[in-house]
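User: For documentation purposes, I need each entry recorded in a consistent format: the amino acid sequence on its own, followed directly by the corresponding structure tokens. There are two entries in this batch. Please keep commentary to a minimum and don't merge the entries.

Assistant: Recorded as requested. Entry 1:
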Amino acid sequence: MGKKILRFCVCIVLISAVLVGASFGMKTLNEKYTEASFPLKYQKEVEAAAERYGVDKYLVYGVIKTESNFDPDARSHVGATGLMQLMPETFEWIQTYYVDETYDKYKFEDLSDPVLNIDYGTNILSILIDMYDGEEDTAVCAYNAGIGNVNLWLEDSRYSDDGKTLKEVPFPETDNYRHMVAQNKSCYKAYYSDKENIKK
């Protein structure tokens, strides 16, 4: 009888060990998949720009993930370039909006440099967030569709009740874009915010 109980206990221990090992393996695979899907590429540059302009770093990651999926050579059919997909007219706008000797020495072609692209893109986000009184969702819509369009939507009761937030977005592309940015930001924040010593 004693031997049977002993064998039973050994079996339970072995089964538990297998289950724990399988669970650990699944967790590791899960982490690898998440980190591959939501990488922290350009971490130093993103965090520096986020701190410099007072923008949530997870929002910056969310925008980059949505815009280019971290491809510094990304180009759109309408002329947007780089990690944060900046347009020539946006580049010209920020050159006049934010007068700085450092900015003056750059040309639009220079935005293929990831460091400069992240800096400009994050600065634009910060300006838009301030412009819309901290309404991040509205700022993200303006980042995609332009300030002029968003201002018109805010003045239209079909799209906004308070003139600050958008209950609906008439451009399907922009509506999809804002949801994707919000989702990507949430994924980054959920996975990385509690982690210490974030991997580069």
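Entry 2:
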Amino acid sequence: MIINFDRTAAYRCPSCGEIAFGSFSMFELSGEKGVRIECSCGQSNLIMIPENKNNFIVSIDCLVCDETHKFSLPFQSLAKKDCTEFVCPNVAVGLVFIGRNDAVRGAVVRNEQYIEEVITACGLEHTGKNGVTMLKALDKIQELSDNENLYCECGSNMIDVEVRENDLVLECCLCGASVSLSADTIRNSDFSHLKQLILKRKK
């Protein structure tokens, strides 16, 4: 009987939006440094470090809520389960997948399909790797609107929102003032902590 100690980890990069894959051996987790899986963009990583001899801590910066989440991964799960999935505790979207290679890649595909279903249910077109980013942006815009913190400098609060593949456009229904927010800007700025958004007319 051949025992395979190789494992695969996958996560969605909060910086570029792509799915990052990395492989490691369970023996690598025995050291104090643990394992670090870095996205090809170089802007994020997934960290797995031992908590004790029976458990590991998985740490990831969340694309959805801009928090750093820490999950507990028992050694028994890593050794025996085909794939362990961790989801954002604030939004039910898969963030991290760890296990045997084929099972991890299958879980990633299923999670992507789930995200597309959510996007469709929201009346949006497919937005590829930016799907979660746009859902997060729409949630924030709705929050600003509900709190009357989204309006145009002309005084109107009637703002139309158009979601595209790589950006989101807000336009005043009264005067036509608009602002475009790229997916990269939404991911890499303090957008989720924005207190107010005012559309300004072009001079």
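Summary note for entry 2:
The helical segments are 75-80, 101-121, 131-146, 183-188.
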